[in-house]
Amino acid sequence: MLGLAALGQAVRSGLALTLIPLLGAELAMGWVPLGIALFALAVTDVSVMHWGARWADRRDRTLPLGLALGWGVLVTAGLAALSPTLPHAHLLFGLGALAVGVTVGATWVLPTAMTVDLATDQEAALATYRIASDVGMLGGGVLAGLGLLLGGIPAGLLAVAVLLAAGLAVTVAVGETRPAEDTAPMDHPAPQVHPAPRVRPAPQASAVPDVAPARPVILEVRMPLPPIEEFAVFAANQDLTLTPERLAQAYATHTAYRADLERLRAIPLPFTDPVTEPATATAWIANGGRS
User: Fold this and answer.
1) pTM above 0.70, yes or no
2) pLDDT for residue 46 is more than 70
3) CATH number of the domain located at residue range(s) 2-182 in this protein
4) 28-56 b/e with 16+ CB inside 10 Å = b?
5) CA–CA gap between residue 288 and residue 282 (Å, rounded)
């Protein structure tokens, strides 16, 4: 997967940033049409980076990456056949640049997700991916320069097509990397498990005071501290994704705060109208303003 990550950066630096502009210059394109063609490449590049990443998170990663690599093989081979004498060469170049953006964008984002999928240590994997990306960015320019030196722009484009074909073979060999628990489409998410509703027990009668209050005293019903498994269900129902370490930290914080929260709830407050929460306020009112 790190090879695919390096390939994605090499395609960006060697193809999109080097060979494509040089090919446009060789076709005797003016600065304005060349700039429009490169802008079209950037538009498809960014669009595929955005929508391709969303598709990969919702469906799979291998299919869009494989299609982008295969598409890149065809497009680069076609660009290698362009010449100034070919009819409508400038239009064909613009269409080719637009099409190349698909491969450039897909090979930027999808190998990243696949690397994280296969990693046992995500922090180390991301650091290694960053190094591989930097190597690919530098190597792409060097390989493009070697291709220009040995055979000119067509040879460089054909070399890129060979590298993309090799990346396609690696993608097929690796297969789908998306975790099994994420394979359900997000358009039809798995049903959430909601905790069973808690039934508040009926308040118990308090001891009869010397002077009967105007209304019965309402005792506060305190909910017990839920176990960490039920705490995790509450978090999931709020669309909170917590790692096991973060869940344990949040549960420990909640547990540590509980005693102080119960102490604060037990302090009577001078409410003037009957309320239902907190229960201590209702009890204070029902008891004639006495704690």
Assistant:
1) no
2) yes
3) 1.20.1250.20
4) ebeeeebeebbebbbebbeebbeebbebb
5) 10
